[in-house]
């Protein structure tokens, strides 16, 4: 017969494990790469792109004001009966009925993500180049 009914010993198990050391207390610890926090990137000027942690205090205040003004711009569902524009001028993709769009004070319409990105770089309408903040401020003065 052969050795098929032989009991297992420490030597047999060590052959299965390979070239491990005899101490069972040592474990290889796999360290994960260090956690990297994603820092948002802002445009303090149209052609100036920097992470938030590299902005001066003045630039941070200016960007916070810009974000605050953007929150006052209405977001509505697109309805083709109200608008003549059939596509977003920024991404050139046609609007879908019921899709969320942002209206600027000059009544131009854009996808929310497209115009928000644009307004973070330049606070003017991409179609008519009218300053959005001036139009917002005059609309509050008349009310």
UniProtKB/TrEMBL annotation:
Gene3D superfamilies: Zinc/RING finger domain, C3HC4 (zinc finger). One of its GO terms (molecular function) is ubiquitin protein ligase activity. It comes from the Eukaryota. The keyword Metal-binding applies. One of its GO terms (biological process) is ubiquitin-dependent protein catabolic process. PROSITE patterns: ZF_RING_2. One of its GO terms (cellular component) is ubiquitin ligase complex. Residues 88-128 form the RING-type domain. Keywords: Metal-binding, Zinc, Zinc-finger. Residues 15-36 are annotated as: Disordered. The keyword NAD does not apply. Pfam families: zf-RING_2 (PF13639). This is RING-type domain-containing protein. It comes from Parthenolecanium corni.
């Amino acid at each position: 017969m052969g050795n098929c009914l032989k009991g297992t010993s420490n030597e047999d198990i060590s052959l299965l494990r390979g070239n491990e050391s005899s101490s069972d207390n040592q474990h290889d610890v796999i360290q994960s790469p260090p956690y990297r926090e994603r820092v948002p990137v802002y445009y303090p000027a149209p052609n100036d792109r920097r992470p938030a942690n590299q902005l001066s205090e003045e630039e941070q205040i200016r960007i916070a004001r810009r974000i605050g003004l953007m929150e006052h711009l209405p977001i509505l569902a697109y309805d083709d009966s109200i608008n003549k524009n059939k596509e977003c001028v920024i991404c050139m993709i046609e609007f879908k009925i019921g899709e969320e769009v942002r209206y600027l004070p000059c009544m131009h319409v854009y996808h929310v993500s497209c115009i928000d990105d644009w307004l973070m770089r330049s606070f003017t309408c991409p179609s008519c180049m009218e300053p959005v903040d001036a139009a917002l401020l005059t609309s509050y003065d008349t009310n």
